[in-house]
Amino acid sequence: MRISVPLPQAYRLLNHGPTVLVSAAHAGQANAMAAAWAMPLDFDPPKVAVVLDKATRTRELVEAAGGFALSVPCSGQAALVVALGTETGKSLPDKLAALAVPTFPASETEAPLIDGCVAWLECRLLPEDGIQQRYDLFLGEVVAAWADDRVFSGGRWHFDAAPDALRTLHHVAGGQFFAIGAPVDGKAPASAPAAADPA
Fold first, then answer.
1. Per DSSP, what are the bridge partners of residue 69?
2. Residue 172 vs residue 22, higher pLDDT
3. Which residues are 153's β-sheet partners?
4. How far apart are CA 132 and CA 190, in angstroms?
5. What pTM does this model have?
6. Is there a contact between 25 and 112 (Cβ–Cβ < 8 Å)?
7. Cα dihedral 91, 97, 103, 105 in deg (nearest 10)
8. pLDDT at 188 over 90
9. 99 phi and psi angles, rounded to 5 deg
10. Over the range 35-48, which residues count as b (16 or more CB within 10 Å of their CB) and which as e?
């Protein structure tokens, strides 16, 4: 079930560095693309940063609409992530329909949210023309956030208690990903390193 995430906790949806799907819509046109370079920037109000190349159709829609969404895909969607990152909205104008990407509407912007993901952040663009043009870096204020309660509740991710297909993806290169791994308790006492073999 999709649950609302309190805005001061929205940064936790991205803090572990997952690949995201960036979507935007304007004047009846919508598009989405994969992005590995996205991160949280602040708590309250929550802000995010994402890199959008000048050649992308999604960037054009973000600039025109003044808003965008980030959907956090899971391991079960790896093929979809590669397709959205490979196909361009400029050569495939109705990419979402052509790839049969399931979406649902956002609450405050036109940006479509990608169904089947494990988290979603709806963002209002914070226009910073200098860094957008020079570095392709876009800033957004999160205005709404949700997560799949099978893997996120109480302000925390719980991947260890869910099917592996719901683990988030982390891009390496060339269409290869790692899924988020096992949790490590940073509060537990550290164990002594194993002794080196004298042989």
1. 23, 122
2. 22
3. 156
4. 43
5. 0.91
6. yes
7. 80
8. no
9. -95, 5
10. bbebebeeeeebbb
